Amino acid sequence: MKHTDSWLYRRFLNSKFMILLVDLLLALLVIFVFTKIAWVFQPVLDFLGIIAPPFIFAGILFYLTVPIINRLEKFGLHRGWAIGLLFIVLIGLLAWGLLRFIPAVSNQITSIVHSAPQIFDEIGKWLDNLNDQQNILSQHDLNEIAAEVQSFFTGKQGAFVTGTISQLQNLIGIVGNVVITISTAPIILFFMLKDGDKFTPMVLHIVPTKLRRSVKQMLHEMNEKVGSY
């Protein structure tokens, strides 16, 4: 009996269930390995987290604005002038958005500044209390100081301090991402609008060959539907 005609091969090894099970195990193995070496890809993810928002934002604006540019161009307006007119409108909307956004950021900064004296007061009280308790720094005293430090940062005062610092870091990160996106997305959008006819072929060049027809159809329908609105 040939190996390929054996009952074990036909009923078990060559079954769809077995193939599916092997694929599932391989997928789980890849996920497990990835979790163990995720730190290797963290810099790449951080880099993509910085550069991706401007391109995504510019892409959304492109599909929202390219029908307007095409319509203005059909009316006889030069494409460059149409893009310039569009950017004037976008700058006006951006200025309006900043006027709405800046007060919220200002309130956050004011809240942090107002809470700073309380933070320093808590730290000062803790240092005074620690100084009153310690006379001569022996090894035992150093151990007690370490315990006091740990107790401070795990207590309510420490939670307040670390929470405030965490809020400040998050605020700086959000503001930085917004500034990068706002400053770079218009440049990307300009070149996308200027070379709008080259945008779809460029995207299709990145997409695998088997998916190009469906992606091209999707982009065309997206452009038509957004343009109709």
Automatic annotation (TrEMBL):
Compartment(s) of residence: Membrane
Taxonomic lineage from the root: Bacteria, Bacillati, Bacillota, Bacilli, Lactobacillales
Family recorded in the similarity comment: Belongs to the autoinducer-2 exporter (AI-2E) (TC 2.A.86) family.
Primary subcellular site in the record, as a coarse category: membrane
InterPro entries the UniProt entry points to: AI-2E-like (IPR002549)
Pfam families assigned to the protein according to its UniProt record, in alphabetical order: AI-2E_transport
Protein name: UPF0118 membrane protein yubA
Superkingdom classification of source: Bacteria
Transmembrane segments: 20-41, 47-69, 81-99, 171-193
